[in-house]
Every structure is written in structure tokens, then in C-alpha cells.
Amino acid sequence: MSKDYPRRVVEGLSIAILVLDRRLRLLFMNPAAETLFELSFRKAYRLALPNLLIGAEAFVAGLEHCLKNGHPYIERELQLILPPGRAVTVDCTAAPLLERDQPTELLLELRQVDWRLRINREEHLLAQHHTTRALVRNLAHEIKNPLGGLRGAAQLLERELPDPALREYTGIIIGEADRLRNLVDRMLGPNQIPVHGEVSIHEILERVCGLVGAEAGPGIRIERDYDPSIPSLWGDADQLIQAVLNVVGNAVQALAGQGVITLRTRVQRQYTIGARRYKLVARLDIVDDGPGIPSAQQEQIFYPMISGRSEGTGLGLSIAQSILNRHGGLIECVSQPGETVFTLLLPLDMTG
I need a labelling partner for 299 at 20 to 30 A (CA). Which of 17, 20, 62, 260 fits? Predict the structure, then answer.
């Protein structure tokens, strides 16, 4: 067993682990804790726990009592508010480290309860998408076969018609058959073989910003909040540009010429997408301050042909979800009036 084995075990835990001194100042936090607090250990070192929480006086008092009496302290479904106001629900276990008669350090374990809810939601999204894809593939097969026969028959009929004026009708049949075939192909999403290579998520975002700049107009402002530490990922740049463009394009249309779109990137450590866990995941939040998506529609937005606009085809988000799934990722959405957040998750370590 190597000397760094205990360290690797602690770093691999999905539970947030913190070690605090008698003044509740931070002495250690593992990567799961960094993810929970969205703060690196280097910046958090020696900070007092009350500075990392908002309005948690009762919780802090319980930890101080735990240190004073040397007895474990347990809280279930504890609501914590982390700066700048992000709420999380955790199960908490605190235990004094009894190296001497009077404990001077405290081991704190925080397990997110909403983590399980997120996993269930992601598994539902993935199952929903796979079911939809299978349905669309079967439907495409059933539609394209008779369409091919219909188009071929119209072409043969066109050659036999004695009156050239009647060919206008066969032309309509052929044109509509081609339109339906193209629609089915779009429902299936990209069908070209992916060309994988090293891809910078920020280069993709800048390319998308350039593409939507003209469409957005002067009333829409795009703000960037990038994490420059995100490494390159392995994927198809063109397909990922298409996926991000579809989501950002939807945000532009939702704002109807006036509003703010924020592009925010972060690294998630020891993160689970569906049922698979990755060491590193790139998280891209596309946030707009538009009217929001009706709650009744939020469960359906990734289905093909579902659109909130009368002129929309409802294929953009379905295609984007398909592209992310091909890269081992996922798209989630949370929306309320004044804030809609589409979160794109992409593994940076495909080995898991």
C-alpha cells in the first residue's frame, strides 16, 4: 500500500470532509467539500466556518458544544446557505478528533441530500432521451420507406404525363416528400461520424458568441464568467458548437430583443452524471433573465417537436441533448420568471 493511499481515499470520497480547529477555522477540506462550497482549499484555509455560511448560528453553536463536550453531533436534512445565497440540504455528522484528553480539532462530514435528488433527475432525463431516440429512429424508418416509394412513383408519373401543366402537381408531391424526409433527418440529429480531438470549452463559447452576435441585436448583452483553469476536453468541436449554439439561440429568442445572457463555466470534481461518476466535469451555465419557461412545459422541452414559439420546430434542444449524450454529458434546465438556467455537463475525464 502506497504512502499516499489514505489521501487518495479521502480525495475520492463524494462526501464533503472538513477538519476544523477549536475556533472552527478550516484546516483541511477534500475535493468534494471544494465542490460543495465552490471554493478552493487554498483560498478557504484558516477561514472560520461562520464566514463560509450565512445565518447558521444554531449550527455553529452545535459544533462548539460538540468540541466542548467531546460528543458527536448529528443533524439530518440541515438547510445551509452558502455565499452568495446558494441553498443546499445536507446530512451532517461532526466528531471531535480525540488525540488528547481535550479535543482541539473537529471532523465534519457533509453529505448532500439534494445530490440524490439530482442523480434521480439526471437518470430520468437520460432514460427520457434514450426512449425518445428509439421512438424517433423507429418512426423515421416507418416514414422514410413509404416516402421513398411515394417520391419514386411521382417521378415515374411525371415522365408519363402528356400535359406539362400537370407536372406542377407531381412536383408538389416530390417537394413535400423531400421536406418530410429532411424533417425526419433533423429529428434524428447529426448523422455524420464525430471527429474527436482536444476541444477548449471557451473557444467554443467565443465562436458561438460571434455567431449569435448579429442575431442578438444591441438590446441583448452577453456577459462572460469563465473559469480559466478548465482543461481541454475530448470531443467533436463542430457538434459541440452546434449544441451550445442551439441553447444560446433559444435564450436570445426568449429575451425578445432585450436582456442579459450570462455564460458561466466551472469545474466540478468527483461529479456523477446519471449513474456514472467522473473525476472532473466541465459545467457550463447559460443563464438568461427572460420570462422563463412555463412549469408545465419544463418536463417536455427536450422532446422533439416541443416548442414554446409558434414558428419554432422544437428540434434545437432535442438535438443539443443528443450531442451532449454522445459526449457522455447531459443538459439540465431550471427556470422561473426572470431566470432560466440551462446547465451543460461534459466529462473532462472520460475514463471515469
Answer: 260
